[in-house]
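Data card: per-record layout.
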Amino acid sequence: MTAKDLAAYQAREVEPLSLSWNDSTTLYTAPLTAGGLTILEAVAILKALNWKKLSSSPAGAHARLEALRLAWSDRLNFLGDPEKVKVPVDHLLSANYARELAAKVEGAVKARKPMAIEVRKHSDEGTNNICSVDRRGNLVAVTLTQGGSFGAQVTVDGLGLTLGHGMSRFEPHPGHPNSPGPGKRPLHNMCPSLLEHNGAAVLAVGGAGGVRIPNAIFDLLTHYWIGGATLEEAIAAPRLHCTGTLNVVIESGWPKADAEYLKQIGFKVGPELPAAAHVSAVSFNPKTGECRSAMR
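The structure for this 296-residue chain is written out next.
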């Protein structure tokens, strides 16, 4: 690490990715190479499924899980640094593609079988997230990571800077959109996000927990944004973790009927964990000026 390296670094202001659930609410999230695209794609599939009508049934739990698995499959197969490879972001978030995937989910739910999705198992962790709101309704979500192993475990002499572990986030096989390359940024799981209602920001949310972050935030949003739960209820709701394989990890408190149903149709459910990821969020009520916070 040299002075030239530090001088060459520039923070960039980039356009967020966004998805609307209805005419009044829109979610904005950090673009690639962050993990928010995976959340938006899964939500888009739920929207195409009219998921709210299914949400309270074991079939709804299956549909929600398959939406997440499909989004992870696309993440692991198509995503990379958009400045170095062509990533079909618009296609992945299009209504037509969401309907196409929703039809596959409906078929799997009707057949009471998991979808045949081939992805490799993945693990990663070590992150911090901070959310903040002021009395004027300015909301911020910031996520930082150095990995569970404290980065690369190499500190630059005379600088006190511990190098990161970003290389571990690349796909090691050549020819993949997320393969290593000069000046290329690897995919990561952080996805600080803001929710807007009727033109005003009402929620900032982010998480820590490596590969578990997108799923935990997806769970919170299905309760808060789609289901209408309070912030406290959404934070407290049990979470599920799956990266596209048949292995599903649930938190303590996940509905037993849903867990048993998923086991019966072919998923490997368990073990129960005390927490899938650490999520923090702040909310703002534009009408009353009330600020609230929650984390778990």
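Known properties of this structure: The CA atoms of residues 58 and 194 lie 30 Å apart. The chain has one domain: 17-295.

See the next section for split statistics.
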